[in-house]
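Extended Data, panel c. Modelled sequence:
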Amino acid sequence: MIRQTITFSASAELGSGSSLTSVTDSQPPILHFRGKIIGMHVEKLKEEMNRLTDQHASGFILDLSQVPLLDSSALGVIMLTVQQLRQTDGKLVLLNPQPNVRNVLRVTRLDTVLEIVSDSESTRHVP
């Protein structure tokens, strides 16, 4: 299994570390994020999502099961990725967002335009 891990420390006000792991040999590829996606972490997410979009035009999965919070910049990165993938008939699937993140998606009505699944079994049909 090819596993690329990008780890970076969260700022002091976050109180914990965050990590970003891509599993690119799985089908579809999975991007695992652990920690809050805010501030400087959004840029790391954007870089990795751009790389995956370039390498896997059919799409990939963003695992949000370990993400307790994301900000509006993170939502913008997710929507930009969705738009880029749609140009090649690809798609981004959000896997198991935590309740706070799911609520943000619901309040912003992004849950109506994004594909959200609750478990990895549901991702089998993703290209």
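Residues 40-55 form the longest helix (16 residues). This feature is highlighted in the accompanying rendering.
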